[in-house]
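Chain A, query sequence.
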Amino acid sequence: MKKLKFLKSLKFRIFILMMILGLLPGAALQMGLLKIYENKAVSNRRIDILSQAKILGTQIVTYDYLNNTSLDVINAQLELLSNIYDGRVLLINSGFQIVKDTYNLDTGKAIISEEVVKSFKGEEISKYDSDNRYIEMTIPLTDSNTEEILGVLLVSVSTDSIVANYEYLKDNTMVIGIACVLFVAALSLFFSRRLVRPLGKITKSIDEVQTGSGEDALSVSDYTETEAMSHAFNDMIKRMQVIDQSRQEFVSNVSHELKTPLTSMKVLADSLLGQEEVPLELYKEFMSDIAEEIERENKIINDLLSLVKMDKSAGTLNIDMVNINELLELILKRLKPIARKQNIELVLESFRPVTAEIDEVKLTLALTNLVENAIKYNKEEGWVHVSLNADHKYFFVRVEDSGIGIDEESLEHIYERFYRADKSHSREIGGTGLGLAITRNAILMHRGAIKAHSKLGEGTVFTVRIPLNYIA
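Chain A, predicted structure.
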């Protein structure tokens, strides 16, 4: 298979295509020219024989040669015609009897053939037998006075000289054809290499980018296609660099987020161990702090597991027809105790009944995160307004709050893992920086979209759009 690998090469296929395009017209032209020569040569020979035969036929009728074949003048002309064209002449009378044969083989014999019969009816017959290499013509001998057909002149002429010239031309065109094959092959090889050279450049540049020995960007602008490939590759490299950078940041953030509670617990534990007589109140306080750090660690790990599960189960949603009105009522019912603690007014407004095909667990988690964030990142005596609406294709959930808001610079990063717009406040309320990442993943899995609008100090609005019918 390795030996035949070159058959899949673009260079080889271009070479073969150019060979075909270069040689087929030449071969067709060669055959056409040879055929044209043969037809023309045969046609000219027919015209010459026919003119000579008609002149001779007129003399035969004039001198009544059919009844007196001893006339030397006619005999000499018959022999001359036979010799010049390397042929045979038969003279047939009205009784279908051969009265003269220039070969002296069939004189006195009767001949009845289709051509002779037709000529006795006044037709001039001419045919070319390419296999046996001869032209045969039958010409009626007509009395000009009475229009009576007295006999038929049958002329059979060899075409060996035409065939010899044909073969000579064929040999010469063959030599020219071989020269053309070599020339077209060389030209095809040159252009096939030249045409695929930019692809080699691309391969080499990619290898250099991969090994780090070349430039970070690919630039092969020989053709429009290679230029487009270069742009596409450069875009892919940029995306990969962003992904790699995001991965590094993610690993760094995970390490930091997991390490911070552990460090706090170690400091607290070391403080307890470093004192000989620890008061019970201090002991309880430190243990309470350690429990809080453990809870924080547990939240981070659970959120990370939720993200991993969503990534793995992107194509395995458990889709059911769910009443979205009831779903939102249940979410708000669960979150009302948190809202009461902060004196936050929680309101649900449904404009119409909505049922949709969703994964209830994942979408519940996403909407819960949005409403819970709206409560936690709010002001004293604030409010959270959740509304539900739908059209013929989508349903819309709007979560609006009177909270602290998000600055414009941070707004485009809020869905990044571990990103916090207000880091100090997030620490206070125990945020992990993963909630919106989980929310966005769940919504995208439903082929939906999420948008955020916010002003610092004036609150935030999240708008979620989900198809009513899930499209796999």
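The chain has a mean pLDDT of 82. The chain is about 55% helix and 20% strand.
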